[in-house]
Amino acid sequence: MSFLRKPVLAPSILAGNHANLGSALKIADADGRRWIHLDIMDGHFVPNLSFGPQTVADLRKQSSIFFDVHLMLAEPDRYLDPFIQAGADLVSIHLEPNYDHLAALKKIRGAGIKNGIVINPDTPVDGLISLLGEVDLVLFMTVFPGFGGQKFIDEVLEKVHRVDEIREHSKFDFLIEVDGGVGPEHVQPCLDAGVDVFVAGTAYYKLDTDGRRQFAESIEEA
Ligand code: DX5
Ligand code: ZN
Questions:
Q1: What's residue 222's pLDDT?
Q2: Closest ligand to residue 153's CA
Q3: Measured from the CB, is residue 202 less than 6 Å from ligand 1?
Q4: Are 153 and 138 spatial neighbours (Cβ–Cβ below 8 Å)?
Q5: Which CATH number goes with the domain that contains 52?
Q6: Distance (Å, rounded) from C-alpha 196 to C-alpha 136?
Q7: Which domain holds residue 28?
Q8: How many CB atoms within 10 Å of residue 53?
Q9: pLDDT band for position 189 (50/70/90)?
């Protein structure tokens, strides 16, 4: 399984208090999480705004946890350098906007970090196929991006399963990630479909310490 040996839960900091994102990071760190998911929204590709590279750089000073940076931007290729310099460990970019995806993916890897390609719930996997040999991670949105707290779209798991089969047959080693509405009830169906990285914002941060530990163990010790 590529650069991970077992599945991982990546709390989404979007669900934290945006006047104090460091506290959501601290919770994930104290819980022993190995990844944190950071959502970057531009108000164009998605109908919401979140935060930018300065926030990522300031959070970087507070933790050495793996920074999984999800760019929801109309022109992601224009903003790769600032997020790389801010300390991202992985930068993922959407397939839907029109830009040179391959060049952007290569640029991220060329900077010595991991890359990822993301598709929305209604985007077919066909456009992904030619990129699968060039990516460290494929992120399947299980909600339409823009807001936390939405309902998980079960049908996306059919696409996950299809890409997992291609991964196996072609001996690719990218990770598969799901993002949006993920809660404890989705862990087993997602594991069965081939998911390695589980992003969870609302469902993770609303739990108490014990609940968060159980949620994480159901993924990481499955
Ligand atoms: C949605 C974001 C997600 C979001 C997930 O646009 O990409 O990462 O933070 O939050 P929950 O788990 O609340 O759906
Ligand atoms: Zn995300």
A1: 84
A2: 1
A3: yes
A4: no
A5: 3.20.20.70
A6: 12
A7: 8-220
A8: 19
A9: very high
Pairing between β-strand 90-94 and β-strand 175-179 as defined by DSSP bridges: unpaired
Residue type, 178: V
Looking at the whole model, is its pTM more than 0.85?
yes
Check pocket membership of 143 for ligand 1, CB cut-off 6 A. yes
User: What is the tens place of the pLDDT at every residue in 112-153?
Assistant: 999 999 999 999 999 999 999 999 999 999 999 999 999 999
Q: Is residue 47 in contact with ligand 1, taking CB distance under 6 Å?
A: no
Residue 86 lies in a domain: yes
- Residue in the block written with tokens 């914002």: 201
Residues comprising the chain, all counted: 222
* 24-66 residue pLDDT tens: 999 999 999 999 999 999 999 999 999 999 999 999 999 999 9
Q: How far apart are the first and last CA of the chain?
A: 15
Report which of 180, 178, 174 is spatially closest to residue 188, judged by C-alpha positions. 178
- Where would I find the beta strands (DSSP E) of the chain? 8-11, 35-41, 66-72, 90-94, 114-119, 137-141, 175-179, 197-200
Which position among 68, 89, 136, 179 bears the catalytic label?
179
Nearest to 96 by CA among 79, 73, 116: 73
199: region left, alpha or beta (phi > 0 left; psi from -120 to 50 alpha) = beta
CA-based torsion, 93, 98, 99, 103: positive or negative? positive
* CA-based torsion, 41, 42, 48, 52: positive or negative: positive
- pLDDT value at position 1? 66
Residue 77 lies in a domain: yes
Evaluate whether residue 3 is within a structural domain: no
